[in-house]
Amino acid sequence: MTRSGRHDEALPALTQAEHQRYGRHLVLPTVGETGQRRLKAARVLIVGAGGLGSPAALYLAAAGVGTIGLVDHDVVDATNLQRQLLHGTDDVGRAKLASARDRLHDANPHVAVELHDTWLTAANALDIIARYDVVIDGTDNFATRYLVNDACVMLQRPNVHGAIFRFDGQASVFATADGPCYRCLYPEPPLPDTVPNCAEGGVLGVLPGLVGTVQATEAIKIILGIGDTLAGRLLLIDALGMEFRSLRIARNPQCPACGTRTITQLIDYDQFCGTPPLGQRTTPDVQEITPEGLLEWMVRGVAFELVDVREPEETRDGYLNGARLMPLATLPDAMHTLDRAKPVVVVCRSGGRSARAAKVLLADGCEQVLSLAGGMMRWERDIGAGPP
Known about the structure:
Blueprint: H1 16-21, H2 23-26, H3 32-41, E1 43-47, H4 53-63, E2 67-72, H5 96-107, E3 112-117, H6 125-129, E4 134-137, H7 142-155, E5 159-165, E6 168-174, H8 182-185, H9 198-201, H10 207-224, E7 233-238, E8 243-248, H11 269-273, E9 287-289, H12 291-300, E10 305-308, E11 324-325, H13 331-334, E12 344-347, H14 352-363, E13 369-372, H15 375-382
Parallel strand pairs: 1-2, 1-4, 2-3, 4-5, 9-13, 10-11, 10-12, 12-13
Antiparallel strand pairs: 5-6, 6-7, 7-8
Helix pairs in contact: 4-5, 4-10
């Protein structure tokens, strides 16, 4: 019987074209025609059509997974192309779901692609995830990881986890019948602003290819019921040293999700993680200025200090005239040079680092500090590329 409850005799048949396409699978003793029919019957949800979702989706489509669901609500940015291979240069500005659908259909027209053009939230997670047999978590924020985990535990869906940062990656399988869940490994999220995202800390472009391919492999093994999955193990990948090692993870009997099961409904995960909701850049106690507002200041000739806290190499993609480069790590040593009688506007790529820098400046006695909402990404979107 398959994960979705279908008996092998009720599995969909393979067409002649599919027999030809999947020939290298059909000769594998542990796959064969029955296994390929299981793949065709399977439904896999991928949360996030980005760095991890790209290789996972492409390999699952190529393998013949019958239905692939994608959850995303973002558009393709030029900075995505270094690692998100579902999208190409001509897709910049398009919805990621549209780009992903076209790429997957080109990779395998036999695969159905279901699009969920939304952020995954406590209000829709159970309804979306319940439609699928396996979930691949390709997200890059803690709030959604806890949300995916809890929904998968409640619905008894395997959660194939992956995470990347700079040169390091990790993968595991959570929420299986006997294995641990994500909360067993991380009972509490890190403090807000202590873990930078990939936009701020960077990521080696091929790393999500390694981790996402591992996730696709685990999903296929779960569907076929073969091999040993990463359930109960955390795979750690060091791309610089090219070392792979795994750590054992035990189910925590006191885990509120899979242990005591005191979590019976999805919660406000942004509040739990202390982060703003997806799609919102606002930061409590840090005042923001929109790109339009900043442009108006420039046109009116308002006197203010403009501080760019990105790394020097990031400014090659665009900068604002008159900005003083003070990378976030060096800000405490350089901020004494600012004219504190003027308002200070802080700029970064997407708004995260500038908000943290604003807090540092406020704590040091600067009276009026504003963070550019959405950073240079929103400036380029709303105003245009290049200096004003």
